[in-house]
Amino acid sequence: MKLQFYIPENDTLKQFIEGYYFIADDDPKRTEEYLTFPNNYSIVTINLNSDFTFAENRISIVPSAKKNIHASLVYNYTVPIIVYYEKPIREITIYFKPLGINRFVNNVETMFSSSQMVEFTPGFSDFKEEMSRIFHIVDVQCQRKELEAYWLSKLIEKDLSAIENILADIESNMKIADIAQKNNISRKHLYKMVYKYLGKSPMDYRKIFRFRNALRNKGKVKNLTELSYENDFYDQPHLVKDFKTLTKSSPHSFFRNVNTELKNVWRFM
């Protein structure tokens, strides 16, 4: 299944949404399966006329006889997830940047408190109706325009400067205790803040942040030792350990099978 990953055309949305894609595949005899690897995005997937199940790190999406709109939110996983499709399928998937979804949804803290994947219920009275309308637009450029206009209409003005500063410190590899001290809060309160806005612990966020940086920077270094030190791993064994945790394979095996030059590294089978 070849997908086009779109960057938002709207400059405001670019601040909060990494990108999105559409799937429209009517072949009734085909199935497809792929792995998606841990990242720090909040991923909203909307399906038309589908049944959606999640169990044991496996997402299954199959056609439904019922006319429906089903939306899910995946936000916290530290091992690969298998995604399985039965076709025909209609899907819109949106990648919100870290903290990005907080700019559109007021009840995200409730969703984050459930599990690594939940039904996405943003509290918009027109959500399912508008998503159904967008699904039935034939022209992709028109779909893009309408999808972006919809999310732009839901934008909420919020002061997130405190958690933005904490997130910047986590990404800079500052010690958690030092981040708490810098912001005049306890470590316990720091963890609560990060869970509230990101749905995961500071350490899980940092581990995934380092991993994703390593993917982006692989082509700039000569070997795994350089890759380790350039991306804030303690040493090469630390990098190997994290890769085995997050991908279930060694770095050598991962890079042999994944084209890290792609903008959106998400498949590996």
TrEMBL record:
InterPro entries to which the protein is assigned, alphabetical: Homeodomain-like_sf, HTH_AraC
Keyword Transcription: yes
UniProt keyword terms in alphabetical order: Transcription, Transcription regulation
Sequence ranges assigned to domain HTH araC/xylS-type in this UniProt record: 160-257
Family matches, as Pfam families: HTH_18
SUPFAM superfamilies: Homeodomain-like
Cell inner membrane is among the record's keywords: no
Protein name: Helix-turn-helix domain-containing protein
